[in-house]
Structure formats: structure tokens, C-alpha cells
Design goal:
With about 200 residues, the protein is of the alpha/beta class. It is globular, with a radius of gyration of 17 Å. The chain has six helices and six strands. The chain has a six-stranded parallel β-sheet with strand order 3-2-4-5-1-6, sandwiched between helices. Helix 1 packs antiparallel against helix 4. About 5% of the residues have low confidence.
Length: about 200
């Protein structure tokens, strides 16, 4: 816990911290390697350092577990508002435009924290927005658009970012989707992100 003389005001116009910048560079490299399409440039090595990005990885889709952990993390963040001035929090979510199956989790998060001023929006609606703290809910799917949206959502954070990465529900009764098996570049991507994140694996 910081002493009162160590607390700072988080401004509205901050650059990405060094670790966030490095994460974005890695995601951009994987985007170019796997999909060979242009994406926004991101310089590594910005000057300020912030807390490590916490990356929760759910190999198997479990909406109840995802919600419970998101809820716990948001409670911690909201408690910090008592000691850090201007701590604005946004929940930015990424889903498949053809199958909006993550919206139930998002709605439960909104209902559980409706007493706090938490901004909630789709990644595709977050252009030009920025917040000191961003919570990213990413329902992963194998298209270049998903990786680009993940890049966009993380880049909205200026100081602190929490990322929840999970697969789609698969085909119930036929196939249970997993990140390790159904998304071929995910294991290698996560390995590259380890030095710049606090990576926590679930199921």
C-alpha cells in the first residue's frame, strides 16, 4: 500500500506504460505474422512503468468462473478508489459480431457493479477513448479482426490493464473449444507475453 505522499493523480491523457507498450508490440507482431495485414504502429519502451498487466487465461469456456474472477478483480479496483484520485475504470469487451455470446457475462458484471461509475463498451466502439484502468473481456475467435480488437482494447489502458482471455463455447454436445487446441498461435503468443504480464491460467 502506498503512503499518502506517494499517491499521484492519474491524468486523462497518459501514454501507455512500458510494459503495456511491449505487450502491444508482441500482439502486433503476431497479427502481421499470422494474417499479413496492416495494423496501427506501436513503439516499445515508453518511459513510465506501471503495474504488470494481469492476464487471466481460461483454456475452457466457463462463464460462471469467468464472472466470479472478473467480479473479484473489479471489487479490488473499486476499493482502490478511496485512495487514488480520478481512478476511472472501463470494461471493454470483445465478441464475435455474428454471435454475441459474451454479452451475458458483460450484463452480469454491469448489474453487480451498478453503484460504481464503470464505463462499459465494445472494443469496436472504443476508438479515441482512454482510461487509466481497463478491464478487457476477450472472447477469442480465429480471425484477424479478433487480434486487432484485442490490440485496440489493451491500448485504451494508460496505466493498468486486466485481460480475460477465453474461447467461444464451441458446439455443445459435440466439441468443447479450448484455447490451446482450437487457436493455433495462442500458446506461443502467451509465452511471448509472460515477461510483461502476470499470467494466471484457469482450467
Amino acid at each position: 500500500k502506498l503512503n499518502s505522499d506517494q499517491l499521484v493523480t492519474l491524468t486523462q491523457n497518459l501514454r501507455n506504460t512500458c510494459d503495456l507498450s511491449n505487450i502491444l508490440c508482441i500482439i502486433r507482431d503476431y497479427y502481421l505474422l499470422n494474417f499479413n495485414q496492416e495494423i496501427l504502429m506501436q513503439d516499445s519502451g515508453h518511459f513510465i512503468r506501471g503495474p504488470l498487466t494481469k492476464l487471466h487465461v481460461f483454456n475452457i469456456r466457463n462463464d460462471e468462473l469467468i464472472f466470479n474472477i472478473v467480479n473479484k478483480e473489479l471489487i479490488k479496483l473499486c476499493d482502490c478508489r478511496n485512495i487514488v484520485e480520478n481512478l476511472e475504470v472501463a470494461v471493454v469487451y470483445i465478441d464475435n459480431d455474428l454471435n454475441d455470446d459474451v454479452i451475458d457475462i458483460v450484463n452480469r458484471v454491469k448489474d453487480a457493479h451498478n453503484t460504481y461509475n464503470i464505463t462499459v463498451c465494445r472494443a469496436s466502439h472504443s476508438y479515441s477513448a482512454e482510461w487509466p484502468v481497463v478491464v478487457v473481456l476477450c472472447r477469442f475467435y480465429n480471425t484477424p479482426v479478433c487480434l486487432a480488437k484485442l490490440y485496440l482494447a489493451i491500448s485504451r489502458a494508460r496505466v493498468m490493464c486486466l485481460v480475460f482471455l477465453f474461447p467461444g463455447p464451441g458446439n455443445p454436445g459435440v466439441h468443447q473449444a479450448t484455447l490451446d487446441y482450437d487457436y493455433y498461435y495462442i500458446p506461443e503468443l502467451l509465452e511471448e507475453l509472460v515477461p510483461f504480464t502476470h499470467l494466471i491460467r484457469h482450467n
